[in-house]
Design brief:
The protein is an alpha/beta fold. The protein has nine helices and 16 strands. Strands 1, 4, 5, 14, 15 and 16 form a six-stranded mixed sheet that branches. The chain binds manganese (II) ion. The site of manganese (II) ion (MN) has 7 residues, from helix 3.
């Protein structure tokens, strides 16, 4: 098994092409492929923000359809499906067209302005993307691998039809769909105790912090280590093991994206968790991890491009 796993691209096709070529992929009849048959895997969030969203989608879908790549859905693809699918019962769309939503999606809308038919075809393609990949020796998901959620998806997920979109976008949903989709595509969050909050990048006060779900449970683990944006005063509190404190415990490596990491060089989060999102859309870099499984042993190596 030989794979090259790419982090969130967000329309940065230049960096993607440089890395594909560095990994040995060659463009034949327009489609990148590897002479030794390596396969690319994309962790989702192909769209929004960057300068070459349309080209990114063409390159990736062509590779996937020719059998040279696999793709999982990111929250941006899921949001796009919801944004563009009319809500037949209550009018409007499954994702409201508020300014905040439009702002997140605007580069994609702009770049497809004169290619609406093509965009419709990409939306149909998004709907077919799997929410996770289990390769036995390793796993791939956009944001978080909770074995219970993956099991739920395996038993219940039959594609993004309207019933699924309705439940997945409904914060009041009690069927479990909303939570599974949110946490798989956007990661898990921790509710801060009464009186604590932090300001997000838009300056909005929030009481839900993203957790580093990949850190193993330990009595010594503090909230300062476990939470993104841990508010002052809580840093030294124990992270705990309660409902809010999920810790991935399987001994199978998970590759994922989503977290906008800022490190100057890719680092493994834990022996069993490898985040590949280093903020290419925010002056960071695109990261690829080349994975080789030979006789049951897995070797991996990072490459990156600013
Ligand atoms: Mn994401």
């Amino acid at each position: 098994m030989h794979y090259d796993i790419f982090g969130d691209i967000h329309g940065h096709a230049d960096q993607m092409e440089i890395l594909l070529q560095r990994c040995g992929y060659k463009r034949k009849q327009g489609v990148y492929q590897h002479p030794q048959g390596r396969k690319a895997i994309f962790v989702g969030d192909l769209i929004d923000r960057g300068p070459r969203i349309r080209e990114t989608l063409h390159l990736v879908r062509d590779m996937q359809q020719a059998g040279h790549a696999e793709v999982v859905m990111g929250n941006h693809e899921f949001n796009a499906i919801s944004f563009h699918t009319p809500h037949t019962e209550q009018g409007g769309f499954f994702r409201d067209h508020t300014l905040a939503e439009i702002e997140q999606h605007i580069e994609t809308l702009r770049q497809f302005k004169h290619y609406m038919q093509e965009w419709e075809e990409f939306l149909a393609w998004f709907k077919e993307l799997p929410l996770y990949l289990d390769k036995g020796h390793f796993r791939v998901v956009h944001a978080c691998w909770d074995p219970a959620h993956i099991q739920w998806l395996q038993n219940n997920y039959r594609g993004t039809d309207k019933a699924f979109l309705k439940a997945a976008n409904d914060k009041q949903d009690t069927s479990g769909v909303h939570r599974v989709v949110e946490e798989t595509l956007k990661g898990k969050e921790y509710s801060l105790p009464e009186g604590y909050s932090f300001l997000d990048k838009e300056g909005v006060p929030r009481r839900e912090c993203r957790i580093k779900w990949w850190l193993p449970a330990s009595p010594n683990l503090t909230l300062g280590e476990y939470l993104f944006n841990c508010p002052e005063g809580l840093e030294n509190e124990p992270a705990g093991t309660g409902h809010d404190a999920f810790h991935y415990a399987d001994k199978v490596p998970v590759f994922f994206g989503h977290y906008w990491l800022k490190d100057k060089k890719p680092v493994q989060q834990s022996p069993y968790a490898i985040c590949l999102d280093y903020s290419v859309a925010k002056n960071g870099m695109l990261v690829v991890c080349s994975v080789d499984v030979v006789a049951g042993n897995m070797n991996s190596k990072f490459s990156w491009q600013q």
